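Batch manifest line 725
LIGAND: alpha-D-glucopyranose
JOB: complex structure
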Amino acid sequence: MSNIFNSSAYNEARKRAEDLLKKMTLAEKTGQLSQFGTSIYSDDEQTFSDHFAEGKVGSYLTIKGASHTNSIQRDLLKATRLPIPAFFADDVIHGYRTTFPTPLAQSCSWNPEVTRKTCEISAKEAYRAGIKWTFSPMVDIARDPRWGRIMEGYGEDTYLCSRFSEAAVKGYQGDGEKMEKDHIYACMKHYIAYGACIGGRDYNTSDLSLQTLHDVYLPPFKAGIDAGAATVMASFQDVNGVPSTGNKYLLTDVLRGQLGFNGFVVSDAGGVVELIPHGFAEDLKDAVRLAFDAGCDMIMAGDPYNDFLPKLIEEGKITTEQLDRAVLSVLTLKFLCGLMDEPLVDEEGEDCFFCDEHMTAARTAAEECAVLLENNGILPLTPENYKGKRVALVGSLAGYDGKVHLLGGWSCLSDHNHTVSIEEGLRKALSDCEIVYSRGCGITAADNDNITIAEAVKASAECDVIIAVVGEEAGMSGEANSRSDLTLTGNQHELIESLIATGKPVVLLVASGRPLVLTPYKDKVAAMMLIWQMGSAVGDAVANILAGTVSPSGHLTTSMPVCTGQVPIYYNHTNTGRPALGRWPFESKYRDCQIAPLYPFGYGMSYTTFSFENITVSDNKMAKDGKLTITLTVRNTGNFGGASVVQLYVRDLVGSCVRPVKELKGFEKVFLKSGECKSVTLTLSASDMAFHNFNMEKVIEAGKCKLWISQSSDDEAFEFDFEII
Ligand code: GLC
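JOB STATUS: finished
ARTIFACT:
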């Protein structure tokens, strides 16, 4: 795969970097490996100008705005001996100013092009504001929705996450060999297995087999690196006892040795200093030695590399070669993106923020992310069917509060004043209806909830249909926001039950950063849809779906738990020797809960229906270097336009290590008008069946297998036996 690292432009940049490196002092070198700025842990912005003369500042994070970055850059270049401009980086996770659906929501589109596009626009807006580097994509596999950062990634599946990882990198960096204007460097994070934190508790230990590490958590990073990701961020937590930030096996042997990564590694925030509380480093100097020697090239938070690397080199504990390799990788990327030649950004370019084109992209992305879980036929609320009717809209997130909270966490420099609320969107889309809005209650309990809930119930009882919006505030997921209970907070449950008790049909919209427990509502509401946190255009997207302008086409990328006690829960689990088949008491099950999720990975409804016809598989035998081709016709058999997601799952029935009961190995989203059909071809290579055995050898084993062509991970309508020979 061609990318920025295997190009003539890179080689030229590298040569220029080598020439510059020869002129640099030790302080200037460690400066290039030191990032400063207003981290998310502090509000006071500092520019560390006292560091400029010695060239000790190589990069900033979270500085906002073209004029602001230019001002700091001018001061820095004026004061430093060598004119090496600083990298400006930020957490452009799902938008810079125009805010797109959270990454988890985007993954539910099952359309990597959605993410490529949103990352491309995010990069353009960030670039116009002086940013050259984003701490994104976050590609941590997450199997535990108690972990708040599940909202930042692309769900529980390795294959799907890998496709979105490469799409994000291409969106940010472009898919060519050069870094063109309006493109910024990506950063694959958090390396690695951050989502495997025990108990779903952020920053907690990840303790997992090397097989799982390599087969489940590593491939999304490899996909992004193959796509040319310029940087990688080390994760905070310890992996099997060695913190990632100081883990030479992970940062050097695997990342550079096995994955062939050529960029540079940055620590996450306090990751280097935290080697001390981890009990891995004795003091800060020891932490710097361990981190830098492991392969953590740049420190995100301040001076420790400036302060201690010179001493460590003097003591021979870090070599000049190690230092120069790290500095060279940073300088090369500064040359490659044009920063060395044009250190200032055009201050006229910020007029693209929230422009119609970007807001339209935000809406169309959001429309593909909603996951319809239940529908008794009440949806869509087409304008012709609901003309003159009264539609109750209930919930704080449907009104003004939603302008803020439906932007989601990590929304960078979003502006809720540009958010289209669900109420605003619905009043436009259902203009012939009477929309009766009432707050009902907020996300957290308030003293007057009983009053506002009663008001909402009274107003709703006089309407023809009730749309209730519940979920989470933006700040309830994301970093340091693990939850021990995934049920609805505050008095939301009471609100829903009271609305159901009116006897009017309730359409329940769930707006959250993470999967929540929706079990009490599944069989009581007329419809239920996950709308996640969809960003600036949420109101128009949700209204278009409710009004039937577009069919929902999202499918789950995380298993939805029946109760919190089920997590971690994921579809690609092993079978155990006692699968829960209900044959006798001694099975792998719970006394008090089913083991299947409420809704499985891959599940999602549409307003229409689809048939998979003429499914053919090229052979029932596959050599270890061979492949199978699966073709089928997908037909829209309903009355609405919509999109089907064709999913290819496999199972290796017998292996030297037990294999998952199902693994996604291909998918394609197909948009079809009513009655239309299209041919789809998927390919399964024998290499897709490879895994790391107990001895950590990557193997493809002969034996019997199955494949399914499905509309959800629990759909086994089409099953096919094949054999690897
Ligand atoms: C945080 C996050 C990381 C983010 C960084 C800079 O601690 O873990 O994802 O990029 O700090 O804000």
